[in-house]
Input
Amino acid sequence: MGEEKRDAIIDALTDCQVVMTMRIGYHAKEKLEKRGLVSVEFCDTVEDGLRYTVEQLSKQLA
Output
């Protein structure tokens, strides 16, 4: 995937605070963090992933 395409995807996420992914590379994660986005990796169902994400964010806020 080209750099411009990655940047366009990240631009599309600017109204989000958290991105849940099955897999994310180091540079992509770094770019998201620079824009103030948190990425959470989880490889299972969406429902379990959402539960996991909420748990992780709750721990960060505690």
